[in-house]
Structures are given as C-alpha cells and as structure tokens.
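Quick sanity check, Guanine nucleotide-binding protein-like 3:
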Amino acid sequence: MSCSKRFKIQKKVREHRRKVRKEAKKKGGNRKPKRDITIPNDAPFKEDILREAEQRKQRREELRRQQKLERQKEVAKKRKVEEKKDKPTEQKTEVKEKKKIKPKTPAVKNSTKSLCREVNKVIEAADVILEVLDARDPLGSRCVQAEQAVLQCPNKKLLLVLNKMDLVPRNNVEKWLQFLGNELPVIAFKCSTQVQEKNLPGAGKRVNPACVDLSRGTVSYGASSLLKILHSLCQTKAIKVGLIGFSNVGKSSLINTLKQYKVCNVGSLRGTTRIMQDVNIDNRIKILDSPSLVVSPDNPPATLFMRSAFHRDDDHLAHANKILKHCEKQQIMLRYNVPDYRNSSEFLDLLARRRGLYKKKGLPDVEAVAKIFLDEWMGARLCYYTVPPASCSSHIDATQTSAMKKRVNCKLLDSENKRSIKGVRNPSPSCSIPFHLSHITNGILDENEIIEQKEEPSDLDNEEMEDKDIGEDQKETPDAEEQSASGKKTVKSVSFDKPANMDEDYDFNADFN
Ligand SMILES: Nc1nc2c(ncn2[C@@H]2O[C@H](COP(=O)(O)OP(=O)(O)OP(=O)(O)O)[C@@H](O)[C@H]2O)c(=O)[nH]1
C-alpha cells in the first residue's frame, strides 16, 4: 500500500472517531452519574448525617432561588428605568405631580378595607365557619367580633380549628382543647407544610406551582377528622365552609392539606391571601378562603404586632422589645444561647455578637439581628406556647354554646382529636418558650371603623425607658396591657434622671468587652 493511501485511511478513521465522540458528548452519555452520599450502614449517626446533608441541600436550593428572584427583580428594575427614559419628559412631570398629590396611607387603608369586605363576604356566604387558631397563642388568634358576627346568624355553625399543634407541647394542646371546648366545638389540626418538588415524579422539569403535590410532604393530622365532621354536617345538601382567622394562622395551608394539592398560596409572609378564594374539596364541600382578619388598634402592642397583616418595616427594635417583654428570660437565654441580660437592647446586642452580625467598625448589628429575631417569631418553626387562663369571661353565652355543640357530633370530635394528638411529634416543654400574653384579640369587621393610620413616633424609646424602670425582671404584667387594651390610660411617673446605682452596677465598656 502506498504511503499516501495509508495516511488517507488513518485520517478518515480519526475523523470518524471524533464525530462519534462528539455525538456521544451531546447525548450526555459520557457524563458520570451523580453519586448519592454513601455512608456505611454501621456508621454511627448515619441518619443524622443524612438528614443534615438533606437540610444543607435544601438550604442551597433556597439560596439559589432567592438569588434568582433578586436577579429577576434587578432586571425588572433596569427595564423600568429604561422605559422611563424612553417616555417623553412631559409625561414624567405629570406622573410626578400625581404622585405628589397622592398621600401614601390610602393605599394601605383601602387594602385594609378591602380585606374587611372580603372577610364579610366569606362569613355571609358560608354555612359553616371554621375559625383557624394558632395553637401557640389560641386565645390571641380568636377574634371576638368575627365570632359574634357568626353567632348572630341562627343557621351558621362555628367551629374552632387549633392549628400548628406540632409547635407546642402535648399537654398544652390538651389543656387548650379542654379550655376552648367549653365554649365551642374545637378540632386539633396540623397542616402539611412541606413542598418537596424534588421528590415529585418528573423532578428536574419545571413544575407548575398550581399542582404541586403536598401529600409527600410532612404528614398532616386532623384532616380526615375535619372532613368527617364536615360530611356529617352536609347530609342533606352541599355546604360552603368559610375559613377565617388572623394572618399566618394557616388558613391557606389547611385548604392545601384537605385538597392534598397546592391550590392556595402559602407563605410565612403575612397577608398572602388578599381576596376570597373558593376551592371544591368534593362535590358536597366547597371551602372559602378569606384574607386575614383586620386587627383593631386598641389591642395591646404585642398583640397588634403578632396579629397584624401589615407592619412598618422600620420598627424591628420596637417590635422585638414588645415580644421579649412577654417571654420568660431563662427560656430565652437557653433558646438563643445568650448570657443574662437586663433589657431587650442588651439582649439584641448579645445576640448580634453571638451570631456574628457586625456593622462597620465592629459594632454589633442590632437592627439586622432584630429583624432575624422577628422573622423567627413570625415563621412556622419557633416553638412557643401560652397557657390557658384559669378563668375567662366569655363573650359567648351558654345557650349559644349548647346550640353549637348540638349541631356537631362532639363524641366523634373528641375521639378524633385524641387520635390526632397521639400521632403528632410535639416539642418538649423545655424546648419551647412560655409566652405570657393571653388575650382575645379585637378585630374590625365594619370597614367604616377603619381609621386612617397616623405616623407615630417609634415607641421603642418610650418602652426602653419603661424597661429601665422595670429593671431586670421585666415586670410588665398582662394586667397593665389589659388596661391599655380596654382604653384605660394610666399615667406612669417616668423619671428622666439616671438611677443612682446604675453606674455602680454595670459598666458597659468594662463588663461587656
Ligand atoms: N409547623 C407548622 N406550620 C404551619 C402549619 N400550618 C401552617 N403553617 C405555616 O404557617 C405559615 C402561614 O401559613 P398560611 O397558610 O399562608 O397562613 P394564612 O392564614 O393563609 O396566612 P394569610 O395569607 O396571611 O392570611 C406558612 O409558613 C405555613 O407553612 C402547621 O400546622 N404547622
């Protein structure tokens, strides 16, 4: 064979092989499959390690999702700026003038009014009303006005749903069931909350958020019991079931749990639901989701913060202060792993140091840590609990109670509640924070009662003054708040002089550094 022919053949073979390799690469055949974490079975703490790895993965994904959202926001912002540039200058000045004329408050005010309207619509349309309560503060998530509005209608039935029972100790759930059961039928509930898109069939593809399967997420308790009760109420005709409650108590989650699909938007962000939504559970039960109830401004400050759907974002320190006032110091020190503190500012200072949150020049970033602290309290993970009061003057009279109980199969309810409580994994009392605030919250149902909100000076300063007066024990009692809730104003003598022994007790620079 001539040399030229041999080289020609060799070249052809090389080209052919290159082509084959290229195609294989395109198909992804050469790629090594991703290995799962393999831990030998005899390794100690295997389950813990796997759980930690899974949590880490979830966190990474969450971060990626957040970054993506931020990027999208930035792009949208840039686009807006470019669009504005393109518009003629005349239009710009018109828009500016309009903006100047429009005050900021009416937007919030109108939206609050519309929330009110939507809640009223739900109460009017529904045959059965479920008032959803947060098991961590059931009394605080009850609304006197809404309950009265329902009880005034003779044909409507009112049931309480004690949701999030996985976040409080078991004996506390039992106590609350007993306490609330004296007034109205109450059902213990735990929603299914986890959305595991990764485990769904077709993982990796884009999943339509409206049909994410929740059945594989965390287990729910009380759903079948609630359906049984509702079916017993609709023997002759189909019924509409309205869900009411303050923000973040889990109304939308409850619907998703009953439906086993994500049909309503859920989030730890308050006021996610803005309008009435109806969802058919089956051919006899239609559920109406409502926006959160509007909180009346005459509630104690902590209740106002815990239950309101909207907040001014700049008040983190004041809000954190309000919450800390009602918590047991020992438990807070244990939960957040901080040493003894005198007031909320000192606690936030210590927490910022503990979590490594510093501003420029090495100063602890108290604002940032206050925001994180509040997010935890508003989220669905922190375990805190309130204790039912020894006696409570009820706004429901005995005839209304007995009428409501007659309409519902209470024996079935009791047995189902016992079954649900047995199944749930509750936190131990030592891991949860006792929260000393138990008030029924006043709400607003009449939109004409909503008054324009005035900008008030931050109450942090005032409260810090109070803190200093109260000293170490954080002695503000619920009674004092009751007084403020009922409108009785007490005049406190506030001394603006430094306490005499203050400097001797504690030198911040020396003791702290
Ligand atoms: N741990 C736990 N978290 C829950 C439970 N139910 C709801 N959540 C969480 O509570 C948060 C609020 O739930 P939503 O269903 O959006 O509450 P909502 O009452 O509809 O809130 P709004 O839209 O503000 O009215 C979400 O982060 C849920 O995951 C529960 O039973 N247990």
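Posting the structure with no commentary besides this: The chain is about 45% helix and 10% strand.
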